[in-house]
């Protein structure tokens, strides 16, 4: 029997081709080895699997449904657009899928505290939720710019009992939040576990987070087949680090006829510093403990990045995404700020669904793609989160259109 892609990737050292690995200081080598061993034990443990199933069904609200976006489809013309509704997952995004599992792992390792970074705040809220549920301390590092931009999520984290630590250096966004969280973790790896928020970081996190998020893809595959009697022709998700994208791609990665699109933020344009389109404009480089594709400045250091979506303004990308693009399994699309905001309003006013700005990038690309395809074709978008966190920012900078589209 042929081994599936997920079973054979990454290799035992955490590499997807040349991408991945674990480039970490000596003080973290043993803690990461412990995490790797614990995950290897837990992922095949009936008790762990049953606990995760229980939590997902009776606490998170899984499975999340698939919705046919009838009005948006008619507006665009062409292919039928479907949405995998991760915005209906508890806490409003896909992030709880891996946070609940990571905190179970932390408890298994005897940790008293979990530490993480967050950009848009959804990972921070999800980890604070999981920590509250399982009774652990929680510390979230967040860029000062994102704290102001995503303030509703900051309040939610604090209500849930988490300590929010501002990252005040550099651009004060997601990269700096990761820097800050790593520094805090290095000080106490014995009592704390760093719960990385995407398919990035040193091995085993790119693999582990993908596996925990794969529930999205496997649910979607079964649900879509029930609705259409076949698999989708195209699957689309936004990419920053890339956890929601790997989550839905995982269900279809062995199905060669299904096109997989990762949509990157083009932001304000192609000039360095105006976007976070890593796979499109980046080059190979090591950052935050893993080798992948990254945006570099003139000195070879991580370049400044920007996106209207705080959760996707990261100068690198998950190593598996770099590998899948290199071997031609995935395609990369682009969406700028204006297109994302247009999709934000169109989905809101045509379907009654307010998407996260990050997810709006995938919706925008789906709208463009749909217009190029015949009506017999289908598109499945991973609607990775809801837009409650973004409404104040959008209203302030992009006034509501006068009428429905």
Q: What general form does the structure show?
A: globular
Broad CATH class of the largest domain: Alpha Beta
Measured as a percent range, the helix fraction is 40-55%
Number of strands: 14
Tell me the Rg in angstroms: 20 Å
| Tally of separate domains | 2
CATH fold assignment of the largest domain: Rossmann fold
Binned strand content:
15-25%
State the separation between the terminal residues, measured CA to CA: 51 Å
Overall mean confidence score, pLDDT: 96
Write a structural description:
The chain is an alpha/beta fold. It has 2 domains: 219 residues, Rossmann fold, CATH 3.40.50; 101 residues, Rossmann fold (3-Layer(aba) Sandwich), CATH 3.40.50.1100. It contains 16 helices and 14 strands. α3 crosses α5 and α5 crosses α6. The longest helix has 24 residues. It is globular, with a radius of gyration of 20 Å. The mean pLDDT is 96.
Quick description:
The protein has helices at about 5-10, 25-40, 45-60, 70-75, 95-110, 120-135, 145-150, 150-160, 175-185, 205-230, 245-250, 280, 320-325, 335-350, 355-370, 390-395; strands spanning about 15, 20, 65-70, 80-85, 115-120, 135-145, 165, 190-195, 235-240, 260-265, 285, 290-295, 330-335, 380-385. It is about 45% helix and about 20% strand.
């Amino acid at each position: 029997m042929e081994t599936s892609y997920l079973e054979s990737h990454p290799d035992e050292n955490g590499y997807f081709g040349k991408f991945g690995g674990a480039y970490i200081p000596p003080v973290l080598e043993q803690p990461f080895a412990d995490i790797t061993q614990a995950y290897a034990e837990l992922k095949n443990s009936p008790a762990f699997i049953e606990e995760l199933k229980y939590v997902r069904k009776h606490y998170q609200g899984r499975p999340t449904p698939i919705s046919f976006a009838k009005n948006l489809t008619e507006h665009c013309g062409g292919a039928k657009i479907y949405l995998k509704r991760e915005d209906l997952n508890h806490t409003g995004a896909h992030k709880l899928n891996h946070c609940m599992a990571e905190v179970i792992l932390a408890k298994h390792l005897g940790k008293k505290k979990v530490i993480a970074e967050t950009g848009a705040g959804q990972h921070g809220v999800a980890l604070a939720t999981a920590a509250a549920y399982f009774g652990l301390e929680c510390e979230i590092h967040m860029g000062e710019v994102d704290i102001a931009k995503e303030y509703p999520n900051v309040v939610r984290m604090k209500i849930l009992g988490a300590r929010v630590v501002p990252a005040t250096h550099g651009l004060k966004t997601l990269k700096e939040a990761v820097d800050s969280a790593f520094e805090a973790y290095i000080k106490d790896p014995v009592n704390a576990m760093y719960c990385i928020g995407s398919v990035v970081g040193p091995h085993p996190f790119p693999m582990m987070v993908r596996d925990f998020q794969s529930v999205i893809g496997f649910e979607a595959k079964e649900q879509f087949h029930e609705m259409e009697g076949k698999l989708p022709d195209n699957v689309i998700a936004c990419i920053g680090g890339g956890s929601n994208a790997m989550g839905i791609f995982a269900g279809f990665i062995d199905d060669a006829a299904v096109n997989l699109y990762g949509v990157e933020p083009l932001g304000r344009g192609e000039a360095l510093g105006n976007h976070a389109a890593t796979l499109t404009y980046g080059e190979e480089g090591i950052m935050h403990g893993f080798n992948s594709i990254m945006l570099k400045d003139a000195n070879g250091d991580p370049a400044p990045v920007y996106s209207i979506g705080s959760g996707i303004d990261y100068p690198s990308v998950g190593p598996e995404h770099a590998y899948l693009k290199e071997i031609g399994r995935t395609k990369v699309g682009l969406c700028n700020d204006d297109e994302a905001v247009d999709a934000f309003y169109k989905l809101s006013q045509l379907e009654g669904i307010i998407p996260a700005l990050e997810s709006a990038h995938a919706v925008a690309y789906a709208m463009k793609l749909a217009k190029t395809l015949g009506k017999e074709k289908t598109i499945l978008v991973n609607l990775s989160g809801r837009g409650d966190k973004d409404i104040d920012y959008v209203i302030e900078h992009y006034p509501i259109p006068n009428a429905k589209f």
